[in-house]
Amino acid sequence: MQALKYARAASVDEAVKLLQEGGPTARVLAGGTDVIVMARERRRHIELFVDIKHIDELMQMTDGADGLRVGAGVPLYQIYGDANITKTYSALAEATHVIGGTAIQGRATIGGNLANASPAADSIPAQFVLGGVATIAGPSGRREVPVTEICTGPGQNILQPGEFIVSIFFPRPAAHSGSAWERFIPRNEMDIAVVNAAVALTLDGETVTAARFGLGAVAARTLFVESAAAAIVGKPLTDATIAAAAAAAREAATPIDDMRGSIKQRKHLAGVLTEHVLRKAAERARA
After folding, report:
1. Sign (positive/negative) of CA torsion 115, 119, 125, 128?
2. Cα separation of 3 and 166, whole Å?
3. pLDDT digits (tens, 9 = 90+) for 162-211
């Protein structure tokens, strides 16, 4: 473990100030389940951890008439453990429920999962399809950015020096909407997705009026697959349109070969999982 300093922030402004003073080697500490490992293995040069878990705003989760706001320090178990979230924001509940084990879920956060920008991150496709918008605080104040624009590459994001994610807002889905998330892993001992997929859709009868698709572990960053949505929006949801969306997902995937899976397998799974989550989300929308 590299030598480093620790500072506890009591407010968002104080956290911004500490990050500014710490420079490029300062990092936010919320759950710490990724960044502490990176520091220990010297994959990131970190000299200062700024602990944000004592900032009330970041530890709050509110589910209101307009939507769900999750503070960047809220642990995963609080998300999937909420019955209203499980029903209304199903994809997010499903994704957060499988990230790590019990100990990890007691600390890890969706804000950290997003900022870490792993192409295989489990919660990011769910955040994409639910229309998440991140509130980012920094030296110039606050700004709101769609989560689809946060990640720029493996381990890379748009955050500037002194900036960090404060919360993520998900607008309340329209009536007759449903969402779903699923992943494939080679075995339980290798808890990193070969492919993961999420969808959210809205139905008017059997016609799809809105849809959003997300795919993980098939490109250098999580994919927001607009071509899959174009294959079904404005059309009845049938076996043919579902197959068209799955084909669009396969076409959008640009994976690599690694120890978890091959290019051929991942492209195949992109289509299979897209079909699975689409059918599951449709069932929920009808209900």
Report:
1. positive
2. 27
3. 999 999 999 999 999 999 999 999 866 567 899 999 999 999 999 999 99
Listing DSSP states for 210-267 in one string gives: EEEEEEESSSSS-EE-HHHHHTTTTSB--HHHHHHHHHHHHHH-----BTTB-HHHHH
Q: Can you read off the two tokens belonging to residue 281?
A: 């989300």
Sign of CA dihedral 203, 233, 212, 199: positive
- Ranges of CATH 3.30.43.10 domains, the chain: 5-51
pLDDT tens digit string along 90-144? 999 999 999 988 888 998 999 999 999 999 999 999 999 999 999 999 999 999 9
61-171 — its CATH code?
3.30.465.10
Residue 234 CB neighbours (<10 A): 11
Q: Which residues contact 103 (CB under 8 A, 6 or more apart)?
A: none
| Closest of 100, 109, 192 to residue 154, by C-alpha | 192
Q: Say which DSSP state 243 is in.
A: H
Q: What is the pLDDT of residues 37-69, one digit of tens each?
A: 666 656 667 788 899 999 999 999 999 999 999
Domain at 177-286, CATH from 3.40.50.620, 3.30.390.30, 2.170.190.11, 3.30.390.50: 3.30.390.50
What CA dihedral angle connects 96, 168, 253 and 199, to 10 degrees?
70
Return the closest-CA partner of residue 204 out of 230, 229, 226, 234.
234
CA distances from 260 to 33, 100, 272 (A): 21, 17, 17
